């Protein structure tokens, strides 16, 4: 019995070590075993010591049945681009979106949030709060309003008769009568 | 979809390899006097320091300051690798690179030597030598 227990504990140790190495190989930011590392900077007598310290993730991995903050009923309706104050909580000061590891949203809601942020930019709801560097050249210089967060993938355009759309669709000035003049 | 989209999503795309490449481009040894690398080749976590070593020995980086003295100490104790960079103003940077990726090492190094963390993306003109 003693032997068995010893063996088991040895095994567990080995598995733990293997998982640790695997997580170390993966990336700095996160690990499979919940090990995360963070840069630590110490200044002592003209020397700056930079090392990685282990950070314990208080939350741990997400469970299967756990809902993200937008999937629960805290936010009763679907997020739209008009909910600027909610969107701002998922953004940096320079107007970019935080990654999913930081927002803690599920994949679906994260993508929806990103789409909404872009639509809010395009519809001018952020104003110049995040600077005017956002690319609003060409056809994007006009504010645009959206029906849905998926409507930016919509390819069909609705054509209305009798609008400017149909007026002067073809050039009328300085046109040759014939392509190859005979003379 | 558009420039706007990629600009907004810039922080979401986490591509460590791309970041490493850009950080390596930004390497500049102008303010560095010497670098003392010390590593155990049999230590499990020495890839990052070897990558760093490799990238500071690249000709383009060497040309930024040919007077940098790079000294290497290959040890045989299974201890963590580290390097010490001495700057022109007498400051020392002691990096213990265990658990760091090469990207972390080079980006921190750039930041502490007063360079931009990431270099410019895109094609570069050939250096005139």
From TrEMBL, chain A:
A molecular function GO annotation: structural constituent of ribosome
Q: Which UniProt keywords apply?
A: Ribonucleoprotein, Ribosomal protein
Q: Name one GO biological process term.
A: mitochondrial translation
CC terms in the record's Gene Ontology section: mitochondrial small ribosomal subunit
| InterPro entries hit by this protein | Ribosomal_bS18, Ribosomal_bS18_sf
Spell out the Gene3D superfamilies in the cross-references.
Ribosomal protein S18
Q: Which residues form a coiled coil?
A: none
SUPFAM superfamilies for the chain = Ribosomal protein S18
Question: What is the name of this protein?
Answer: 28S ribosomal protein S18a, mitochondrial
Protein source organism: Caenorhabditis elegans
What does UniProt list as this organism's lineage?
Eukaryota, Metazoa, Ecdysozoa, Nematoda, Chromadorea
Q: Which gene encodes it?
A: mrps-18a
From TrEMBL, chain B:
Which SUPFAM superfamilies does this one have? Thioredoxin-like
Quote the cellular component terms of the Gene Ontology held in the record. Answer: mitochondrial large ribosomal subunit
Q: Which keywords does UniProt give here?
A: Ribonucleoprotein, Ribosomal protein
Domain of life the protein comes from? Eukaryota
This chain belongs to the protein called Mitochondrial Ribosomal Protein, Large
């Amino acid at each position: 019995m003693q032997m068995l227990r010893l063996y088991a504990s040895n095994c567990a140790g080995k598995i733990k070590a293997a998982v640790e190495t695997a997580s170390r190989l993966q990336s700095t930011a996160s690990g499979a075993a919940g090990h995360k590392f963070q840069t630590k900077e110490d200044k002592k007598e003209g020397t700056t010591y930079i090392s990685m310290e282990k950070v314990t993730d208080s939350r741990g991995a997400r469970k299967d049945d756990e809902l993200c903050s937008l999937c629960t009923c805290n936010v009763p309706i679907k997020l739209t681009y008009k909910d600027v104050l909610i969107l701002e909580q998922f953004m940096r000061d320079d107007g970019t979106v935080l990654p999913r590891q930081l927002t803690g949203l599920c994949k679906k809601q994260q993508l929806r949030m990103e789409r909404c942020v872009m639509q809010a930019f395009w519809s001018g709801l952020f104003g110049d709060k995040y600077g005017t560097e956002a690319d609003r050249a060409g056809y994007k210089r006009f504010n645009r309003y959206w029906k849905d967060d998926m409507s930016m993938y919509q390819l069909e355009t609705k054509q209305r008769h009798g609008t400017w759309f149909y007026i002067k669709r073809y050039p009328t000035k300085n046109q040759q009568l014939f392509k190859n003049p005979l003379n | 979809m558009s420039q706007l989209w990629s600009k907004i999503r810039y922080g979401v795309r986490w591509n460590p390899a791309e970041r490493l490449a850009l950080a390596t481009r930004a390497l500049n040894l102008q303010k560095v006097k010497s670098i003392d690398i010390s590593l155990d080749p049999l230590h499990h976590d020495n890839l990052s320091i070897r990558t760093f070593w490799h990238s500071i020995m690249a000709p383009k980086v060497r040309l930024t300051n040919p007077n940098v003295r790079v000294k290497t100490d290959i040890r045989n104790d299974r201890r963590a690798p580290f390097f010490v960079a001495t700057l022109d103003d007498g400051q020392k940077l002691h990096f213990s690179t265990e658990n760091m990726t090469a990207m972390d090492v080079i980006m921190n190094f750039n930041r502490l030597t007063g360079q931009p963390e990431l270099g410019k993306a895109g094609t570069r003109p050939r250096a005139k030598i």
